[in-house]
Design brief:
Blueprint (H helix, E strand, L loop, with lengths): L2 H20 L2 H11 L2 H26 L5 H31 L2 E2 H4 L12 E2 L3 E4 L2 E8 L4 E8 L3 E9 L5 E9 L9 E8 H4 L20 H14 L6 E5 L3 E2 L5 E3 L2 E3 L7 E3 L6 H6 L6 H9 L5 H12 L3 H4 L16 H10 L15
Parallel strand pairs: 6-9, 9-13
Antiparallel strand pairs: 1-2, 3-4, 4-5, 6-7, 7-8, 10-11, 11-12
């Protein structure tokens, strides 16, 4: 309703009160009933909060007219009750809007949620490609506004309990926007102890990995992740995990891309410790077993080169034979085959490069 309409209603009531004061007693009742139609009462209720003082004063003045006291008091109470009901309904509408449970998968680009379960956005929050928001109610206007607390979507994608320590580790993921003209956004993941995500002093450590968290928004990010984990706890995968490669307590052997185990062993997933990312990338399969054997066959007449293969393979036997750790050192002139031997040793387990960020040689 416009300001002009508001002023007109107050003016109309004032004019009516003045006319009643000048009426004969017998005419006041019918005039009261005619003037205060249902529509006018509803309009006054809608405007009550903005014009409460004027309405109260005019209705009190009307009540002072002979024969109008009871009518005026009853009307005032009726208008106030209507105003309260309208305000309560407005608040309920706002709360209902805030309480709607949205689906994360519908708010983010399809290519980012392929293979995801149907994840929920907890009440009081919203998520889109622009970030994470808290919902703020405005009861006076009957609207809900959004306040951004993260500049990109950030969620928990996996959970694992370490078999050795019993600690819970989580994989947190956030959408990383591309640089200018470099394709489309993609998920970036990082694995941390669960305590990192729910401690305002620790969660800021994710800043160095590009996560949309700052010291200013840390508390809001924790509220969001807490609510997100709670509503999706039956949807986020929970597995037995380990934070180290190689032999496990149960006798199985864990690699970045596989778990070598017997049927009696539980499936394990690697949740890498801090700093293991380069190793994760370098320990991978490539080529063929037959092709690798052909290369090693060329070294058969070079004992020191073959020693690199034996030492590399023997490393995983130490656990079985309970042998102490060892190292192999080659010392010779330049171009005598030291680096080549090192590459052969690295090829047993991963990408045998020493000039690549994803190589197994450091």
């Amino acid at each position: 309703m416009s300001d002009n309409e508001t002023v007109d209603l107050v003016a109309e009531l004032k004019a009516f009160v003045e006319s009643v004061q000048a009426m004969e007693s017998a005419d006041r009742g019918p005039a009261f009933t005619t003037f205060f139609s249902l529509e006018r009462i509803e309009n006054m209720a809608a405007q009550w909060r903005d014009n409460e003082f004027q309405f109260e004063a005019l209705l009190t003045q009307l009540g002072s007219v002979r024969g109008m006291g009871a009518r005026s008091r009853e009307l005032t109470q009726t208008i106030k009750r209507a105003q309260r009901r309208a305000r309560q309904q407005q608040q309920q509408d706002v709360l209902q809007q805030m309480g709607l449970t949205n689906i994360l998968n519908e708010n983010i680009a399809d290519y980012l949620v392929e293979g995801f379960p149907t994840l929920l956005i907890p009440n009081g929050f919203d998520v889109d490609m622009g970030g994470v928001y808290t919902l703020q109610p405005n009861f006076d206007e009957g609207t809900v506004s959004r306040e951004k607390i993260a500049t990109a979507p950030i969620i928990i994608t996996q959970r694992g309990r370490d078999n050795d320590t019993g600690h819970m580790q989580v994989e947190v993921a956030w959408v990383e926007p591309p640089g200018p003209g470099k394709g489309r956004p993609k998920w970036r993941t990082h694995t941390v102890e669960r305590s990192v995500l729910f401690d305002s002093r620790k969660i800021v450590s994710l800043i160095d990995y590009g996560a949309p968290v700052t010291s200013i928004t840390a508390a809001d990010a924790i509220r969001w992740l807490t609510a997100y984990e709670d509503i999706n706890q039956h949807k986020i995968p929970l597995t037995n995990g380990a934070n180290r490669l190689g032999w496990q307590k149960d006798g199985s052997f864990l690699l970045p891309d596989g778990h070598i185990k017997l049927d009696k062993h539980q499936e394990l997933k690697l949740f890498p410790m801090e700093g293991m990312d380069p190793i994760m990338k370098s320990l991978r399969t490539g080529g063929t077993w037959e092709g690798w054997l052909e290369v090693v066959e060329l070294l058969r007449d070079h004992p020191l080169a073959m020693l690199s293969v034996y030492a590399s393979v023997a490393s995983v036997m130490q656990h079985i034979v309970k042998c102490a750790n060892f190292s192999v050192d080659w010392s010779n002139e330049t171009s005598s085959g030291k680096t080549t031997s090192l590459r052969v040793a690295a090829s047993v387990w991963g990408y045998p490069a020493d000039d690549d960020d994803e190589g197994f040689i450091y």
